[in-house]
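hi! just following up on the protien thing from before. the input was this:
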Amino acid sequence: MTSSTTIARLAGPLLLLIGIGMALGMLMEGEAYSSIMREFIGSPALIFVVGMLALVAGLAIVNVHNLWVPDWRVIVTILGWLGILRGISNLLFPGTVQTLGDRMIASPGGIIAGAAITIVLGAILSIMGYEALWEPAPARRTSHATAAASRSGRAAPRRTARKK
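and the predicted 3d structure came back as:
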């Protein structure tokens, strides 16, 4: 399994569930969910802790996966760099993060749009990460002697080491 697949298997379901939680929270809980988000964004300590975690996660991803290729794997790299930027901004500019968070919470459409983007990214990474689990395994190649023996019902001849 490659680092791309491993990271996709970790980040994909996480992003998918976060996005679904955001969407369901806004659609079903409404004001209660907005209240939770306001409480979160109002806490400089939480912003700082999330910044540390985002920076560590972003650095970990970029250190093992800094691939700029024209396929799905670039999403993993971009998420790593976004994690680094998020971590730096949370640690150095918590007030600005609070202001931006307040603006986003004020617009339910912004939360739904963020949830939709998160769901799409999570789905892509989950599909690509777990793709190998539902692909059929390639047929195993057998030697001519083994194939002939299995057709005739006899045991395949054993190969033994030659003595010199």
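The first helix runs from residue 3 to 29.
Residues 3-135 form one domain.
cheers
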